[in-house]
Amino acid sequence: MARSRARLRRLPSSLLSVLASSASGVKFSLSVFCVFVFFRASIASAAGANGLLLDAVLVKNDLIAIGERGAIIHSIDSGKSWENVPSPSMSTLTSIAFSDDQLGWIVGHDGTILTTRDGGATWTPQFNAKNKEVSFLSIAIIDAKRVFAVGSFGAFFSTSDGGHTWAEQKVLEGDPHLNGATAVAHSQLYVAGEHGTLLRFADLGRHPSSIAPPYDGSFFGVLSLGRHERLAYGLRSHFYRSDDDGDHWEAVPAQPSALIATVVRLKSGTLVAAGQARVFFVSHDAGHTFSVWKTSLTTAVSQLVEAPDGSLVAFGEAGATRLVSPDSK
After folding, report:
1. At 260, phi and psi to the nearest 5?
2. What is the number of other CB atoms lying within 10 angstroms of the CB of residue 38?
3. pLDDT tens for each residue of 12-30
4. Which CATH number do you get for residue 130?
5. How far is CA 100 from the centre of its chain?
6. pLDDT single digits (tens) 165-201
7. What is the number of other CB atoms lying within 10 angstroms of the CB of residue 31?
8. Distance between CA atoms of 28 and 238, rounded to whole angstroms?
9. How many distinct structural domains can be found in the chain?
């Protein structure tokens, strides 16, 4: 199936590479996660809390989430209630990150980059890519000066001056979608993408080293588990664990087959994975094994965040949903 740039710009971030992968037989549905009930709290919500949300972050004790039509919402009570935050954009917003409790960035479709200097209370446009076909899918922050934004068709932009200027760089031949960027220990950057793409920027050099892919499907992210331990995740419940910064990878079996869009590490060390399928996974041994975790959520998930009160908040097709943590007894 030929990829359509015009169509792709309108899709949620976690589905961008799946559009391309469907040519090789990947089938999925947005009606997902028909599983057993643990708990789902009702949420008094701003309008955006019930729409499509694609990413969220915890800043001090506040949750900030973003999504379609420029939605920015925040909660001061662990996701029990939400308020809208004025947004300067109508583009779909896909990824949010902060360098400290005041300075943060949001990226999204139409080459959009927003910034805040007051902890997310107000946001202003900082950059728009000249090519409006660019859909930024992930942002990684090294510090207040060095920030990276990656996205569709190989988009890779960076700033070394806090966003005053942004530079585009071609890091791969062809145009694979770059789905996720992860900063590790202020010195390394990992980028995950389709066609088995795993890149590592050691010491944040200008040119990445391509990690030999453990499989040729799409990856959606890399999670740091320790000084040298990494977990890569992607389509069809593919989890791969490395103990040497990604030089070598070991497959971690998990069933049933599911698109894994996100993995979060809780304060306890428990890992929780979710995405576009009818299952959550949980690991209590730092990603060496995964088992199914049953929840009440029946829709797709793009992000998971552990709230200050210990609950787990899922963000995705159904907006924001509070879940009882798998660590709860």
Report:
1. -100, 110
2. 16
3. 444 433 333 333 333 333 2
4. 2.130.10.10
5. 19
6. 999 999 988 889 999 999 997 678 999 999 999 999 9
7. 11
8. 15
9. 1
